[in-house]
Amino acid sequence: MRKIHPTGDALNFALTLRRYQAFGEDAANRFDGAVFRKAFFVDKKLCLLSLFEKEKHAQMAVSPATRAQKVQREAERIAHKILGLEFPLAEFYDFAQKDAVLRELTIRFCGLRPTLAADLFEILITSISAQQINLQFAFAVRSRLVRRYGEKLQHNGETYFAFPTPEKLARARVASLRALQFTEKKSEYIIGLARAICDGRLDLQHLPNLSDDDIAAQLLPLHGIGRWTVDWLLARGLGRGNAIAAGDLGVRKAVQRFYFNDEPQSEDTIRNFAQRWGIFTNLAVHYLLTGMALGS
After folding, report:
1. Contact call for residues 251 and 214 (beta carbons, < 8 A)
2. Beta-bridge partners for 153
3. CA 232, CA 246: separation in Å to the nearest integer?
């Protein structure tokens, strides 16, 4: 076991991980309300990360037990992503004092952090699967994909699945994804994205080094990826502070509820309005969405 966030660093463990239960099963990211578990690869070896809270601190453990530094480093990297430990929460709370809405939400949800995807392929597939359908159904079909194409790991009588690799999905057939209840178009998009990564047309490892505009330029030519998907990658994949999926219906509704008396606003209006939050936009949106979901 290893403590992974310092004393005094605000983290509401259960609230942060709530999204992994809110819409049904997430087969690649399992959270039972107390322990979060995720299978991950290091040099083609499958390991299991467990995150839990003990004495008000987030702790991590890796199975099978190992002291290998490469495994521990990768587990810690994933843990920091999942728990959103990269976000400057203290600075955001100071900033929120100037905004009555955010001030109230940060008091109510103190320690809430946006979770980030463990890798960019996962967030892209997650976004494609969620296009134009409700999140409950998106979680369901994505979990079927994980169980069908993800590598299995057995631990303490339980089976865990790693998120499918691009190599595995590049070999999938459209008919096979259709059988999981993906649409034909989404099946083509998922397979096409995987093949673009495998044949070198898209280098996901290089994306974090690029500007937002350059990332969009790399991704938008690919079939099935539009501005909405790029925005979610920036927000929930890379954790960019100024990211907002302004075209997302849930995001628009949240901003409208708290700032426009539920009156409909255009995507451009929402995007322009969010500029007031600057580098704290991603955090602000996360708190607004949580306020909407939990009935604030």
Report:
1. no
2. 160
3. 10
Q: Which residues contact 103 (CB under 8 A, 6 or more apart)?
A: 96, 97
**pLDDT greater than 60 at residue 6:** no
Count of Cβ atoms closer than 10 Å to residue 47 Cβ:
24
Query: Looking at the predicted structure, is the pLDDT value of residue 166 above 70?
Result: yes
φ and ψ at residue 268, rounded to 5 degrees: -65, -40
User: Torsion angle, CA of 226/228/234/235, rounded to 10 degrees?
Assistant: -170
Structural contact between residues 42 and 70, judged by C-beta atoms closer than 8 angstroms: yes
Half-sphere exposure for 151 (CA within 13 Å, toward CB) = 16
pLDDT of residue 56: 82
Record the tokens describing residue 187, joined without a space: 């099946």
Q: Domain 1-86 has what CATH class?
A: alpha beta
Q: Where along the chain do its domains lie?
A: 1-86, 117-226, 249-293
Residue 47 to residue 139: CA distance in whole angstroms:
23
Cis peptide bond prior to 164, omega within 30° of 0: no
Write phi, then psi, for 279 (nearest 5 degrees).
-70, -5
Taking residue 61's Cβ as centre, other Cβ atoms within 10 Å add up to 15
Which of 33, 35, 29, 30 shows the shortest CA–CA distance to 15? 33
The pLDDT, as a whole number, for residue 68 is 87
Please tell me whether residue 155 adopts helix, strand or coil conformation: strand
CATH code given to domain 117-226: 1.10.340.30
DSSP-derived letter for residue 49 is: E
Share of the chain above pLDDT 70, in %: 97
